[in-house]
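tokens incoming
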């Protein structure tokens, strides 16, 4: 049994990590969040110590270590811009770190963390759940078994509706979340590099507060992509069904079914990490480079190989 600490216990993604720690038969000794709405902990680890102040949490972890109760893993579920600092905290306390996506916001942060890994002898692991999805694994095999000179045509559309709260929260702050492409898209970009290889071209056609779209060329694919948090961008026939999320991935015009099978992927990720097969720090760098470049690109508009949804009417910021 391994001992865990968790930072970001009140966040949206934290319950998946609590569940994964429990289902892999490990123990959570301490958790931190500045918000105290963390009753979910009772469902998994009611005896875990909880802190709303970082300094007291830090002192508690140090006290445990000096009493020969070391923290083996620190799970990081905090806002994106804090990941780098909280990963460093875990490494400095001689723990391996499991961090939610995006691992960090800038590619050079990964280089610096790699140095700290060397100094501490501990490792940083990513949650790349799409790499563990059966449909994505099958897609990777399909590409691998195709003729080596085959370049695939690929369309990615992902729309996950968010209300006005989103723009008030840290997620609506570009400096804190990295924007739509980073916040909801980074794991898709990781998936694309995992399947299709290195990036050769990265064009951005639209980059707004509620959507982003562009064109990527990889060694094995040409990809048009569209990401949005605006419900109005969901196809009308889907909206009429009362659905607020729309996922579509097409390869050579053929739809890939991957709407199911996400429920237990965090637990699967933890099992792989604990078995020594987790995805390490440097594997995040290609996708972090992609979203960094998207964030700093000048949008081209309706020019070149753009996604059809780029033509959708753009809306004003709700608080402008």
């Amino acid at each position: 049994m391994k001992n865990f600490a968790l930072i970001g216990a009140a966040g949206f993604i934290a319950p998946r990590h609590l569940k994964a720690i429990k289902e892999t038969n490990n123990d959570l000794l301490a958790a931190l969040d500045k918000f105290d709405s963390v009753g979910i902990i009772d469902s998994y680890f009611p005896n875990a110590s909880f802190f709303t102040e970082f300094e007291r949490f830090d002192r508690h972890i140090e006290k445990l270590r000096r009493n020969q109760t070391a923290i083996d893993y620190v799970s990081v579920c905090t806002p994106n811009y804090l990941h780098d600092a909280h990963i460093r905290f875990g490494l400095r306390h001689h723990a391996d770190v499991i961090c939610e996506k995006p691992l960090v916001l800038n590619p050079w942060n990964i280089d610096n963390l790699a140095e700290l890994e060397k100094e501490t002898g501990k490792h940083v692991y990513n949650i790349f759940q799409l790499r563990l999805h059966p449909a994505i694994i099958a897609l990777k095999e399909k590409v691998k078994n195709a003729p080596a000179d085959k370049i695939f045509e690929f369309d990615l559309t992902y729309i996950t509706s968010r209300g006005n709260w989103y723009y008030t929260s840290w997620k609506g702050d570009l400096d804190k979340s990295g924007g739509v492409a980073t916040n909801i898209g980074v794991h898709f970009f990781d998936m694309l590099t995992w399947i299709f290889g290195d990036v050769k071209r990265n064009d951005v056609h639209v980059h707004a507060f509620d959507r982003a779209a562009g064109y990527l060329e990889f060694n094995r694919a040409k990809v048009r992509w569209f990401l949005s948090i605006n419900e109005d961008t969901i196809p009308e026939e889907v909206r009429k069904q009362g659905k607020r999320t729309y996922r579509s991935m097409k390869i050579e015009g053929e739809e890939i079914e991957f709407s199911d099978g996400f429920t237990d992927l965090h637990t699967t990720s933890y099992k792989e990490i604990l078995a020594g097969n987790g995805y390490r720090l440097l594997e995040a760098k290609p996708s972090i480079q992609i979203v960094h470049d998207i964030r700093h690109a000048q949008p081209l508009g309706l020019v070149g190989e753009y996604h059809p949804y780029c033509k959708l009417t753009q809306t004003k910021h709700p608080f402008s």
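note: The longest strand covers residues 152-160.
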